[in-house]
Amino acid sequence: MLIFVLQMQILPALELSGFIKHYLFVETKTETTKKLRLFSDGNMGLVFSFKNKMIKQFSLLNIPAYLPDSFVYGQIKSYRDLYCNGETSLMIVVFHSYGLHALLGMSSTELIDGIVETENLFGSAATSLFDKLASHDKLDERIIILDNFFRSVLKKRPLLLQASVTASIQFILENKGITSVKQLTDLTGCNERKLERIFMEHLGIGPKKFTNIVKLHIFLKYLKTKFETSSLTTISYEAGYYDQPHLIREFKKYTGLTPSQYLKHANLLAVNFLELT
Question: What domains lie within the chain, and their CATH numbers?
Answer without folding.
Answer: 3-156 (2.60.120.10), 163-263 (1.10.10.60)
